[in-house]
TrEMBL record:
One of its GO terms (cellular component) is membrane. This is Glycine/D-amino acid oxidase-like deaminating enzyme. GO terms for molecular function: 2 iron, 2 sulfur cluster binding; metal ion binding. Keywords: 2Fe-2S, Disulfide bond, Iron, Iron-sulfur, Metal-binding. Residues 427-511 form the Rieske domain. It comes from Mucilaginibacter auburnensis.
C-alpha cells in the first residue's frame, strides 16, 4: 500500500527554480511489507534510476526505488535536456584513451541512450515535448576551427552524421561550423513523471522522502536503512549521480557547477536548433516552450564546485546573453552539478570494495540524458545477470591512462593530497608535502597507516600498507617503485596489485 505525503511542489537541489519544476501531486511512499526481499533496490530517482527501475520492473522483477526527496530532485531537475549524438568527451579524446573500437562503442552508447529515451516516449506515449532538432557546433578562432576539424574527423570515424555549413543560426560571428542532424530535446521532468507512472503501474514500489544512509549485508541480502525504513534487496543500485561516502569515485570524478538562464526575447528571434560554441567553457543555446511561452535557454560558464564565484558566473552568462540576444526578461536562472570522469567515460558497475551486488553509474559529464539512460539499461542488465557490450569500456574498476585529461589531474592531485593530509597531524602533513614525485612513504598517526606514493605528475596514491599475506607493514622500494613486505617478501605495485611472493591478494587501494 502506498502512503501519499502532501507535498505538491516538485523540488530540486537548489533554491533557484528551473523551468522544469512542475506541480507534481503528492509524494509516494509505499509501506515495506514485513520480510519482503526485493529483487533490486534502486537508490536515486533521476533519469538513471528511473530508467533502470522501469526496465527491471518490465522484466517482471520486484523493484523498490528510493529517493531522499522527490523524483527529479537531483541534476535531472536542473539539466538543460539536450539529447545529442556527441558528448563533452570528443570521439578523438575517447579514441586516444580507449582506442578506435572504444570510441565507436562510446558513440554507440550515446546513440543507444538517446534511443532509449525515444523508445520510452513511444512505448508510454509520453507527452514531454520530445522533438528532433538540428545541432550546430561553431568555431570563432583558428584554434577552435582546428578542434572543429578534429571533431568532424572523429564523427566520420565513429559514424556520426555531420557536415560543414555556412548557415549556423547564431548571431555570433563564426569562421567555421558543423551541422549535426537528428539531435533532440525534451522536458526532463515531464519525462521522469511519466516513467514514475509507468513504474508504479507495473507494480514497482516507490519511496520518496527516504534518504538511505546505511547498508547492512547478511547471507547475500542487502538491507538499506533510512530514518524510518528498512528495505531489503538482492541487489542494490546507487543511481545517486555519485555514490555517497568515500569511494574510488570520490577521486575519479570531479564535481562541476554549470549555469543556465531561460529568457524571453523582444524580437521573437528564437532559434529552432541546438547551438554550441567551442569556447572553454562552452556556451549552448536552445528554445523551449513552457505554458505557451517561448524561452531561450542559454547555458555554460561552468567551474569546479566550491571554486569561483557563482554570482559572477551568472553575471558573465547574462552579459554574454545580452551581447547577442535582445533579452526582454530573464525568467529563470539556475545552476546544477555534474561530474567529470578522470578518463572521459562514465563508470558503470560494481562499486569497488563494497559487498558484491552493489552497483553504481557515475561520471556522465554534461551528457547524462544519454549516458544516464544507457547506464540505467546496463545497471538493469547487471542486476539481471546479463552482460552488456559496454561493460568493458565503462568498467567501474578500470585503470586508464589519463594523458588527455591533465586539467582533471591537476585538480584531483589537490583533492587526493587533502584527503590524505587531513587525516594526519601537522608533522605527517609536512612530510607529505615534502614527498618528492616518484617517491613513497608509510605515514602514521593515531594508529592509522597509509602507504602513500606521489607519482611523477604530483598525484597522491594511497594504499592500505598491511600486507595481505601475514599482516606485516610494507616499505617503499625506491629503486623498483614498489611496496615490499619485510616479512615474507610479498611485493606490490603502486596500484596495490601483487608482483611477487606469497600474497594472493593485492593491497587495498584507498585512493
Ligand atoms: C546545468 C546542467 C545542464 C546539463 N545539460 C545536459 C544536457 O543538455 N544533456 C545531457 O545529456 N546532460 C546534461 N546534463 C547532465 C545531466 O543532467 C545529468 O548527468 C543527469 O541528470 C544525472 O542524472 P542521474 O539520474 O544520474 O542523477 P540525479 O538526477 O542527480 O539523481 C540522483 C538522485 O539521487 C537521490 N539521492 C542521492 N543520494 C541519496 C540517498 N542517499 N538516498 C536516497 N536518494 C538519494 C537525489 O535526491 C536525486 O534525486 C547537464 C547537467 C547540468 C548541471
Amino acid at each position: 500500500m502506498a502512503q501519499h505525503i502532501e507535498n505538491t511542489t516538485h523540488t530540486r537541489d537548489g533554491a533557484l527554480n528551473s523551468p522544469w519544476q512542475l506541480p507534481t501531486g503528492a509524494l509516494v511512499n509505499h509501506q515495506t511489507p514485513t520480510g519482503k526481499i526485493y529483487d533490486c533496490l534502486i537508490i536515486g530517482a533521476g533519469i538513471t534510476g528511473l530508467t533502470a527501475a522501469v526496465l527491471l520492473q518490465q522484466q517482471g522483477k520486484q523493484v523498490a526505488l528510493a529517493d531522499a526527496h522527490n523524483v527529479g530532485f537531483g541534476t535531472t531537475g536542473g539539466t538543460s535536456a539536450h539529447i545529442n549524438t556527441f558528448a563533452d568527451t570528443t570521439y578523438p579524446e575517447a579514441e586516444s584513451a580507449f582506442g578506435e573500437d572504444g570510441a565507436i562503442l562510446f558513440a554507440d552508447a550515446i546513440n543507444d541512450g538517446a534511443g532509449i529515451i525515444k523508445q520510452m516516449v513511444t512505448d508510454f506515449n509520453i507527452d514531454c515535448q520530445h522533438e528532433t532538432k538540428t545541432g550546430y557546433l561553431y568555431a570563432e578562432t583558428e584554434d577552435e576551427a582546428k578542434q572543429l576539424d578534429d571533431i568532424y574527423n572523429g564523427f566520420m570515424k565513429v559514424g556520426v552524421a555531420a557536415s560543414y555549413t555556412e548557415n549556423a543560426p547564431t548571431p555570433v560571428a563564426y569562421i567555421k561550423a558543423l551541422e549535426i542532424p537528428n539531435q533532440a530535446q525534451f522536458h526532463p521532468i515531464e519525462y521522469l513523471m511519466a516513467l514514475k507512472d509507468a513504474f508504479l503501474k507495473a507494480g514497482g514500489h516507490l519511496f520518496e522522502n527516504t534518504l538511505i544512509d546505511k547498508l547492512e549485508h547478511e547471507d547475500n541480502i542487502h538491507t538499506a536503512l533510512s530514518a524510518e525504513k528498512s528495505i531489503s534487496a538482492k541487489k542494490i543500485v546507487y543511481a545517486t549521480h555519485l555514490p555517497p561516502g568515500i569511494t574510488v569515485f570520490s577521486f575519479k570524478c570531479a564535481p562541476y557547477r554549470s549555469y543556465v538562464l531561460a529568457v524571453t526575447l523582444q524580437d521573437d528571434d528564437y532559434p529552432d536548433a541546438l547551438i554550441y560554441d567551442s569556447q572553454e567553457p562552452y556556451h549552448y543555446v536552445r528554445t523551449h516552450q513552457i505554458n505557451g511561452q517561448k524561452l531561450l535557454l542559454i547555458g555554460g560558464n561552468e567551474h569546479k564546485t566550491g571554486h569561483d564565484d557563482p554570482e559572477q558566473a551568472f553575471a558573465d552568462l547574462e552579459a554574454y546573453t545580452r551581447q547577442y540576444y535582445n533579452v526582454a526578461e530573464i525568467k529563470y536562472r539556475w545552476s546544477s552539478q555534474y561530474y567529470i570522469p578522470a578518463d572521459g567515460l562514465p563508470y558503470v558497475g560494481q562499486i569497488p570494495f563494497m559487498a558484491d551486488g552493489i552497483y553504481t553509474a557515475t561520471g556522465f559529464n554534461g551528457n547524462g540524458m544519454m549516458l544516464g539512460s544507457i547506464s540505467g539499461k546496463i545497471l538493469a542488465e547487471m542486476a539481471l545477470g546479463v552482460e552488456s557490450k559496454y561493460d568493458k569500456i565503462f568498467s567501474s574498476s578500470r585503470i586508464k591512462p589519463i594523458d588527455g585529461f591533465t586539467e582533471f589531474m591537476k585538480e584531483n592531485a589537490d583533492v587526493a593530497y587533502r584527503f590524505v593530509a587531513d587525516r594526519f597531524g601537522v608533522e605527517e602533513k609536512q612530510s607529505l608535502q615534502q614527498l618528492q614525485p616518484g617517491t613513497g612513504q608509510v605515514v602514521e598517526s593515531n594508529d592509522k597507516k597509509m602507504a602513500v606514493y606521489r607519482d611523477k605528475d604530483g598525484t597522491i596514491h594511497a594504499l592500505d600498507p598491511v600486507c595481505t599475506h601475514a599482516g606485516c607493514i610494507v616499505n617503499f622500494n625506491a629503486a623498483e617503485c614498489t611496496w615490499d613486505c619485510p616479512c615474507h617478501g610479498g611485493r606490490f605495485a603502486i596500484d596495490g596489485s601483487v608482483l611477487t611472493g606469497p600474497p594472493t591478494k593485492g593491497l587495498e587501494q584507498i585512493l
